[in-house]
Write a structure and sequence with these properties.
Length: 766
Amino acid sequence: MKLKHALFTAVAFLAAGSVSQARSVASYRTIPLPHSITLTPEVSPFILGADVEIDAPESLANEARFMREYIPAGLKGKSSGKITLRSDLVDINPEAYMITLGPDGVTVNGASPAGTFYGVQTLRKSMPAELDADCQVELPAGQIIDRPRFAYRGTHFDVSRHFFTLDEVKTFIDMIALHGINTFHWHLTDDQGWRIEIKKYPRLTEVGSYRPNSIIGRTGPGYDNTPVSGFYTQDEAREIVKYAADRHIQVIPEIDLPGHMMAAMASYPELGCTGGPYEVWRAWGVNDGVLCPGKDGTMQFIADVLNEVMDIFPAPYIHIGGDECPKVLWTKCPHCQARIKELGLVEKNGVSPESQLQGYVTSFACNVVREHGKSAIGWDEILECEIPQDAIIMSWRGVEGATEGTKRGHRAILTPTSHCYFDFYQTKDTANEPYAIGGLTTVERVYSLEPCLPTMTSEEKALVMGCQANLWTEYIPTFSHVQYMELPRLAALSEVQWLDPDKKNFEDFKTRIPAIMAMYDKMGYNYAKHIADVDVRYDVDSDRGALVMTCSALPGYDIRYTLDGTNPTAESTLYTEPVAIDKDCVIKTTTFNKGIEGHPVCDTLAVGLLTFAKCTLAVEPDAGYAFNGAQQLVDGLSGSCNYRTGRWLGFSGRNCDATIELSQPKTLSEVSFNVDVFSCDGLVDCRGVEVYAQTPGSDKFELLASEEYPEMDRSKEFDVVNHVVKFKPTEVKKLRVVIKPQWVLPEWHLLTGCLGFLFVDEISAK
């Protein structure tokens, strides 16, 4: 069957054809960048006009519909040919496609309908988002050959902490389809809300889908006055599955177990160890209340829920959670202890019987999933016990889960917090951002992810299915906020998922991102524009006694700056080369492009007795938190509570041992430094400090002062702690400061026994 579409009326067509047409030239350098673009400039281009026809077989009627929808509005004039859609390309990659362009027509041929769809998306993104009046589009002649690198290209959306409407979920799917993403990980249940109808257990949505309020901020004090409620019926969930499938996206539901189950236990208290009463949790973080695997009824509940869920979602994978499951109640529960005895579980290789009990639950759920011909995905904690070989590891606590999982023969999906958590801040200027959980994941940081780690063997790399971004919505109550956190970081993620490593180039990516940002504008998406802001780098020049500011921005953007704290204007000093600054000041930088002003980037420089001195470290920081190295400790710029801003040096299992050489001897009587506390991520306060001095005429360090600090208690979760060490006035030419960490996390911490992190910033003196 042939599908034809005349985009405008005959009158409009005749009027447009009677005058000379303006032309807008398409660019195939889209996001993600196609694998191969070959232009033939000696051949005339294809002219896309108002009368374009789209030919496609019935099997591609869906793709033809999208092609029609994607052609820019306002198009005028005659086309030089037609657009043909096919799906008989021979390629080992089922999502591959080829586009052939010439004066007589455009052919999009996929190795499957999905491949054809991605070719259609590339054509869509190659055309301008907005056209001038009375315009045609010129598509240069040539050929585009493309295929994605990874078969699993995912994006996660948590609808448990806050509920989002069916239309908002569909818009989310449209957003990821624009970026060539083919997997929608739908996080449907958690402590704070149960969002999917289960017919055998109606109270899951009658009770579990509602909470009266939520904690204010991260830890209070107090609660807001905003109820949160809502769930998806099974028919609505199937509607989402169909909507996604039309865009060649599979929907993977997540039922998180055996932890994160307070909403389920509030609905059916018998599922817990104590029998309740429980409530749908109004706070964030990790709750000790988890399912009781010692009860046969709990295990039957798991099977029943998974069976109903798998009847709704046809994807070959089901996510069963498995993360952050405290076992404190299991150690006291007679049902759990009886199950441990029944299974003959004893401590083995340092793994407690309770941890092995979680392995029993995970294996049970995996087997239920396998009976439906599917595989289970779990967060990387499931590796802490024996699990079935077909279980897939989703590595979120760094890349170690993927490393260990593939070594043990498991397939793995990379989603490390360091690169893929889109609920993290996306700029260092957090004071002017919507409230977020913390952290820092910039567009460039996302782009730098390499899922196939260099330490992996070729066999292990073959087990890496792909990667995905995660969006947890504790602090994201509106869909506009969802879009802001996703875009344009999704654009960076799409190139990680699609391109071979040798094709990735962030500087080139920056030249292409304005076009997709124009598409966001056209679609009405709310997106973050930080990538168009100034990228500021500061380096200490000890010889000059100054901080050197180096700035960069997207092509075509001017950079203006001030040093007096005022917001730059188009008349402020134009940045043309690195600027040396040696006095207290408030630095603000802003981009300007065709009258559009970027966000001001603000930094405060405070110059003290140690600022800009030469600084060295006895032991380097952890690789992921080395940033500008030792000089960062004396650069005059103090870090905020967000430890990922690049202002903090992070040490795990080692001291921060810094030696500071003054340009000339100075009399000092105290030393101070800051420690960043973010306890849920394992950042705890230090346990002590020693201050040594080398005086003029001596080559030996002598101890000036030392202090010991008590173990931090669990009440302190987020803070910048300033420590001050005083001593008798001493003339100093070199200073050595040894800051001692909490070597292992304390007993109250979820990861007790593991190495903690010490994050240190500005060392100063008086």
